[in-house]
Amino acid sequence: MHHERIARLLEKIRREDGRIGAFIEVYEKEALAKAQELDRKAKEGKPLGRLAGKAIAIKNIIAARGKRLTAGSKMLENYIAPYDAAVVERINAEDGIIIGSANMDEFACGSDNTHSAYFATRNPLDPEYVPGGSSGGSAAAVAAGFADIALGSDTGGSIRCPASFCGITGIKPTYGLVSRYGLSDMAMSLDQIGPLANSAKDAKLMLSAIAGRDARDQATGGTPENGKVALDFSGKPTIAVAKEFLEGCDERIAKEFHRLSDSLGAEGYQISEVSIPSLKHAIPIYYLTVFAEFSSAMQKFDGLRYGKTGRELENLTEDVGELRGSKLGLEVKRRILLGTFITTKEYHDAWYGKTLSARAVIKRDIEAVLGKYGVLLGPTMSTLPWKIGQKMENPLEMYLADILTVPANLAGIPAASVPFGKIGKFRPGMQVLGSRYGEGKVFALMEEIERLDRK
Amino acid sequence: MKTIIGLEIHVQLNTKAKLFCECPTNYGHAEANSNICPICAGQPGGKPMQMNGEAISHVLKIASMLKAKPELDKDVFVQRKHYFYPDLPSGYQRTSKPVAKDGKLNGIGIWEVHFEEDPGRYELKKGFVDYNRSGVPLVEIVTAPDMRSPEDAREFLGKLEQYLRYFNVINETEVGTMRIDANISQEGSARVEIKNINSFSNVYDALSFEIKRQRTQIEQGVKIVQETRHFDENSGITVRLRKKETADDYRYVPDPDISPISFSAAQWKAAADAVAELPDARAARLASQYGITPADAGVIVIEKEFADAYERLVKERKFDAQKFANWMRGPLRKQLNYRNLLFRNSGLTAKHAGELYEMFSTGQVTDKAADQILIGMLDTDILIKARESGAYVELRDTPRNVANDLGLLKSSDSGALKAACEQAVKENQKAVSDYKAGNAKSIFFLVGKVMQKTKGTADAREIEETIREMIG
After folding, report:
1. A81 and B44 in contact by Cβ < 8 A?
2. Which of A216, A434, B309, B366 is most buried, most CB within 10 Å of its CB?
3. Cross-chain CB nearest to B84 (options A216, A296, A316)
4. Is the pLDDT score of B404 beyond 90?
5. Interchain proximity A69–B45, CB inside 8 Å
6. Given an 8 Å threshold on Cβ–Cβ distance, is B45 in contact with A344?
């Protein structure tokens, strides 16, 4: 029965993905073989894993042995990953069926998936519109019904933004909850892998399968082993709303948010308004951190490694310059250059040094609120999806789109987006932020929001 | 003209695994690119594991033997040093902030001691990169500019090497495990850096040449420019690599994937205790405590394990301290040196050495037979193979077993000895008549024949006496 269902899904992808562009590659053969294996195991009465039969799309920035790992870039066009990421090992062990690699903004630089070096992904809710990014292919695969669950990565909102734009659920877990071994770097102190799904229940199922300590990612050092991570909470978490979350927010989204907050109030939730003034510095702090770490992470992509270049090396400096120049996209180059600038000896203290201390302030302020309240609640994005082709010229405008999502990454806390209400074809996402390892309360409120949305 | 010299010394640490992954470190003994994983080969998504604890313990010992002050209970960050080169898989090298500062060795100040990871190896002409070495742990020791001559540098490095070898903290199974950058200037002139000198002895030659070069220039009124030079060991000269008007900018940032390391007072104490007695102090103590010559004591302390074995056996087996010292530095060391082996990685243990010396000193085997036994023990197929792959195997066989197998136990059967002598006399009548005619030396010819027949199990003096009685 798994085989039949997977075959049907693959058929659907063949028919419809040309219009959406969710996948960079579809793993037909392997997916069917795995489905067949599960059917055989089931027939023999053998126990199946937690993800048995789930069709899973993986953002193409996560390594799967023997498969291309492009990170949405021409730089890695011919690179075959020689190993499995920790999350891929976990999915395979739990009998999930990986059906393909999802499109993304090049090296996760972007908020709308138009920065893929291959093709733009379209929003399944309206193909004229962007799906959000950078995990836009993952969100579109779930929203289009190609996959049950997808994995994305989130450095400043790259799971939550596309989840919100595509009307599905996504969670960026606590920094260090899920091993990033096998996740190509964007900004290492912010990066986190997490699930996108049709429901909080499926997102939680996936998270329960992939969460846990791993010696190959030091950030997981404080996390319990897989199977011992607490994701449940019974009771009503107390809610804080930071008034900064609604400043400059699209009125239609703000209206849906107020409708949600009223409904929660009516259900007996205690909701308090708070203010976190340092949030207004989140965007510059976030981008300076990203530029600095990203330029370091991108250092290895000299154009000579990771797949054939098809040319002889003659002059190291010139050839590397030329290869990087021709194989990287504009936004990636912009970030490398800015990051290189702010980490030079001359400017290091003025920019990067200050950024590190300012980040500590935001983290402390958010933690202080979450020490008093169970969760923070607000909209995920302050705008609705834009049309493909808009916002391309002005990078600042694109950077500002991340304003509500970056604080969670700066603080290393879990943050989820769950759809609520309807605006035209779209379903705006509501963001739930919890304290470090406070996923239980986040999921509890997500499920409540889903219930109220169905009402 | 006053010469000012400071050194940056990079030495590979003696660890089984690399600094941030579990790959083995025997890079030169393995097929190219076989000791690699996604982490040390810089594959996208590879992240560093926790720093190798063995490396940490070695570096703390080194810091302590250099009398440097440790950065106790502080966060020691690991930084990324960025540059492009084919042997550097990630485009940056991981290098820690100082683990300890402000030490002294042989009167030379030590500025700091820190960790680094080695890059891979790049063969420019073949365009070939081998990442086996990538990620091998290094310690970098930075001295103050306290040396005034190549002799100072040689003396300092000699002492440093002696300490590092004695405590078994550095990699001695591979080649090219030490690299030195030397900074050298004439007082009042610009500083020149000679990069990547690949042995301690080349440092002396490089410095000697460079001092002459700089002085000649100054005498001719040519200004010395700040630059980086390379020492060419074939021609013995230094050549310019690049002019260095401004400092290189490596854009150091703390590695976000690595939690800062920190050392507790207890960790530091354990390291300090392990290196509490330095080899020269131990040599002096051995000489006075056991009454052996300072020269013998100096050789005994070449390795800590060797000196430990010596002391233990003298105490436990009540060996004659001087005679046993002679044997250890003589016949035993000779067989090790011949195979380029250290006692600690030879497969021989103190127990083996004790048993063999016991057999020799009580006359159960001759000195020649003792040599044969050592050879038999050190040259088994298993051991030779292990040495080729850089592995360590402990010997299972005991000296007594080997002696039995090779028939080397001294024959206590005087009948057999007598028979062999009679036969030699019978077969070599000319030597007998020569001896009788007054050529005393002829008897040694006969002794040699008997030794051949008895395969060295008989004592030469005993043979001589037997023959003398027979024909005398």
Report:
1. yes
2. A434
3. A316
4. no
5. yes
6. no
Minimum distance, in Å, between the CA of residue B288 and any CA atom of chain A: 51
* Cβ separation B82–A79 shorter than 8 A: no
Of B37, B46, B92, the CB nearest to A299: B92
Alpha helices in A21-147 (DSSP H): 28-43, 86-93, 136-143
Cβ–Cβ of A218/B258 closer than 8 Å? yes
Are B226 and B216 in contact by the 8 Å Cβ rule? The answer is no
Q: Is residue A379 part of a domain?
A: no
List pLDDT tens digits, range A241-292.
999 999 989 999 999 999 999 999 999 999 999 999 999 999 999 999 999 9
- A162 within a domain of the structure (yes/no): yes
Residue A121 domain flag: yes
d(CA A254, CA A267): 20
- Report the pLDDT value the prediction gives residue B173, as an integer from 0 to 100: 82
Which helix (H) or strand (E) covers residue B228, if one does? strand B227-232
**Of the candidates A82, A189, A313, which has its C-beta nearest B43's C-beta?**
A82
Of A71, A302, A345, the CB nearest to B91: A302
**Cβ of residue B438 closer than 8 Å to a chain A Cβ:** no
Domain that holds residue A115: 2-222
pLDDT, tens digit, 9 for 90 and up, residues A88-134: 999 999 999 999 999 999 999 999 999 999 999 999 999 999 999 99
Q: What is the tens place of the pLDDT at every residue in B237-280?
A: 999 987 655 567 899 999 999 999 999 999 999 999 999 999 99
Which residues numbered 93-152 in B keep a CB inside 8 Å of some CB on A?
127
d(Cα B207, Cα B149) in Å, to the nearest integer?
A: 8
CA of A279 to nearest chain B CA: how many angstroms apart? 23
Residue A56: CATH number of its domain:
3.90.1300.10
Q: Where are the domains of chain B?
A: 3-267, 277-406, 414-471
Q: What pairs with residue A232 in β-bridges? A: none
* pLDDT tens digit sequence for A367-386: 999 999 999 999 999 999 99
User: How close A324 gets to chain B, by Cα (Å)?
Assistant: 12
- A145 inside domain: yes
Q: So what's the pLDDT on residue B219?
A: 94
What distance in Å separates the CA atoms of residue B431 and residue B437, rounded to the nearest whole number? Answer: 10
What percent helix, strand, coil does chain A show, rounded to 5?
A: 45, 15, 40
* Three-state secondary structure string covering B332-369: HHHHHHHCCCCHHHCCCCHHHHHHHHHHHHCCCCCHHH
Element (H, E) at B405: helix B399-406
pLDDT of B125-167, one tens digit each? 887 899 999 999 999 999 999 999 999 999 999 999 999 999 9
Q: Count structural domains, chain A.
A: 1
Q: Do A180 and B50 touch (CB under 8 A)?
A: no
Question: Does ipTM come in above 0.90?
Answer: yes
CATH code: domain B414-471 is 1.10.10.410
Which residues of chain A have a CB within 8 Å of the CB of B256? 187-189, 293
Question: In this predicted model, what pLDDT tens digit does every residue of B177-199 receive, in sequence order?
Answer: 899 999 999 999 999 999 999 98
Q: What are the residue numbers of the active site of A?
A: 59, 134, 158
